[in-house]
Amino acid sequence: MSKISRRTFNKKLTQGMAGTALLSGMPLACGMGAEQSDKKLGIALVGLGSYSSGQLAPGLVDAEHCYLAGIVTGTPSKASQWMKQYNIPKENVYNYENFDTIATNDAIDIVYVVLPNSMHAEFCIRAAKAGKHVICEKPMAVSVAECDAIIEACEEAGVKLSVGYRMQSDPYTNEIKRLVKDKVYGSIQYVSSDAGYISRGNPGQWRLNYALSGGGALMNMGVYSIQSNIYGTGMNPISVSAQEFSTRPDYFKDTDESITAQMEFPNGVVGHMFTSHNANANRLFCSFERGWAELNPCHNYGPLNGRTSDGKEISFPHKSQQMLQMDDFAKHIKTGSTNFAPGEMGKRDMIIVEAIYRSIKEGGKTIPLDLGTMGIVS
Ligand code: NAD
Questions:
Q1: What mean pLDDT comes out for the span 294-304?
Q2: How far is the CA of 116 from the centre of ligand 1 (A)?
């Protein structure tokens, strides 16, 4: 029997399953044996910074469909500490140079890229070429062109792609989506969303370094505001105009400090967003024909909190958003269930980010958008 690379195998498997599903009418990936769909998928985290260590690794401890199988780090001392703490075998530990050899490691099903933004595209593409499913942290990349390159690499390799949008697996987000979709308080009229925090400390940190971040508050926190404006209306904007503000230009030398943007949605629905590296802001407000709903706090790791105009509290038992997010993606791979944060959602948000930066450059000009239903997952 001729040898087949994992990459070719993944591609053929995806195509084969799609074909079988089309012929039989069964949902995609139902052809996977029960044994395979019961298996926990192995995730390798690339970059062991604060998000990996504080949120993702702890989230994986309790996950049902995936587990922390491997790590990719440039720091040998971190490698030994993580191996001990999470019982990771030596053969599942990589550095940035030998990372591509992960292709031959069957213990790793998913590579999760948790590096500074400008490194996402390179490592997601290398992961796809190694035949691994990919989770790319937000923002997906530093340009639409890079998002395209990641999507193309994943399609070419026949692997699944998701963006690290934890809010898309969060019950509070889903409750807002339900209120919008079911028109519980009538049609949505206006949405407003704020996401920001006060950046202090080392002005040389990568988030304030354009070459590594691709932008400031908008790239870091603004994508949350963009996301919640969209799920708070259930629609993509048809135009955007934006303004930039700075009160600490000595600190924010290289990247944007605060941005406001106005979005126009179909049917004249209005959206407003604010994002900042110099103001604490964490709220979503949806105004409907016959009432309103608010999440405050809205974008942090939880517990979140919310309320509606008729005095109801929006409240759910707290669970790790990261655990829910990674479990959802693992389930998507195993069973063909919904991918709640596909690559095209990350690309759509980057199209909006680029339009916002363009509007600012052109003095607040309204930039038309032609997104259709791109990246809307219901
Ligand atoms: P961090 O600075 O804590 O960690 C970055 C990691 O990248 C470190 O392990 C560092 O050693 C490594 N690295 C490799 N090359 C580097 C370089 N040239 N410069 C700096 N670091 C380098 O950052 P973080 O907070 O863990 O963020 C990583 C990614 O995760 C970012 O894309 C960020 O937007 C995203 N993130 C997402 C969430 C979320 O809620 N989804 C939260 C935090 C961070």
A1: 97
A2: 5
